[in-house]
Design brief:
- With about 300 residues, this protein is α+β, with helices and mostly antiparallel strands.
- It folds into 2 domains: about 140 residues, SRA-YDG (PUA domain-like); about 140 residues, Trna Endonuclease, Chain: A, domain 1.
- It has 7 helices and 16 strands.
- The strands form 2 sheets. Strands 1, 2, 3, 4, 5, 6, 7 and 8 form an 8-stranded mixed sheet that branches. Strands 9, 10, 11, 12, 13, 14, 15 and 16 form an 8-stranded mixed sheet that branches.
């Protein structure tokens, strides 16, 4: 069945299902006889179930989409598993923003890298639970129809609590194990580093900074030391280059928002010596894990 809804077009949701099928009461709809998976987002309704905390358009152009499951920890089943399996099944991810009974077609998306992360979200009674946050990369879309990351537009920068990311493996198709291992390494690194820093007396936060209609969120903001920290899963040159650019951008915007901000990069191992020298020349603290502790290679801290 050909797709005939134009980007930015609004229809009644029941009319979308009448043509393409699928469950009308689900945020993730999986029509049996259609090569599409229909994703619906309603920021106002989703806020009640903790969907807004990590959902929205990020500064890197990726749309973070919270998986299904309103009560208890989300499971990699049904609609969530359908999204995860979409590259293998060849099904297109079609995102809609709903308002009442109407649904505006945002566009077609594919899974990013990694396909998803796990975050701690709240249910309607404010109890913490596991949530799957899918990384959706656009093929064609109307980005101006989407809420910004973290629950809508921010009037000014703020800080929210830092919680260790989950990194324990969950059941999933074998084809995704490699991507899962990559994200697990970074999440484990963040969790160990955060716990290590807190034992040393630091107060860790997540800093949210509005920038040109979007919101940027570094991996850590050490409120005690005034340090913005970006973590990467590898000390390979490409990852270090990316981390340098990101953390300098974060710090520049954090300072403009009135926060004390010195840049730092967190890696699982030592990068090449010239990259250590580069970080030092740029005033970037470089932390690496060695056994059960972390050392700073650039003499900044």
């Amino acid at each position: 069945m050909d797709w005939d809804i134009a980007v930015g077009e609004t229809r009644k949701r029941r009319d979308v299902h009448r043509v393409y099928g699928g469950q009308q009461q689900q945020g993730i709809s999986t029509p049996a006889r259609s090569p599409n998976i229909l994703l619906f987002t309603d920021p106002d309704k989703g806020r009640k179930y903790g969907y807004d905390a990590f959902e929205g358009l990020r500064d890197d152009g990726i749309y973070s989409y919270t998986g299904e499951g309103r009560a208890g920890p989300q499971e990699m089943t049904r609609g969530n598993l359908a999204i995860l399996n979409s590259p293998a099944t060849g099904k297109a991810l079609r995102l809609f923003r709903t308002r009442g009974t109407s649904a505006t077609y945002i566009g077609e998306f594919v899974l990013g890298d990694p396909p998803y992360t796990e975050q701690q979200i709240q249910d309607e009674k404010h109890n913490p639970r596991r949530g799957f946050i899918f990384n959706l990369a656009p093929v064609e879309w109307a980005s101006d129809q989407l809420p910004t990351y973290g629950g809508g537009a921010l009037a000014q920068a703020d800080v929210i609590p830092w919680t260790p990311p989950a990194y324990d493996p969950v059941s999933m198709p074998a084809s995704f194990l490699e991507a899962r291992v990559g994200s697990r390494i970074e999440f484990e690194l963040q969790s160990y580093f955060g716990s290590w820093r807190e034992r040393r007396g630091s107060i860790l936060k997540r800093l949210r900074i509005p920038v040109n209609g979007s919101v940027i969120v570094p991996d850590f903001y050490d409120e005690t030391l005034g340090e913005v920290i970006e973590a990467k899963k590898s000390p390979a040159r490409g990852y270090v280059r990316t981390a340098i650019g990101q953390v300098l951008d974060y710090c520049n915007n954090a300072r403009q928002a009135g926060y004390s901000a010195s840049p730092a990069v967190l890696l699982p191992g030592r990068p090449d010596a010239d990259l250590i020298d580069l970080c030092k020349s740029l005033g970037i603290a470089l932390y690496v894990r060695e056994m059960n502790a972390f050392i700073e290679l650039t003499g900044k801290r």
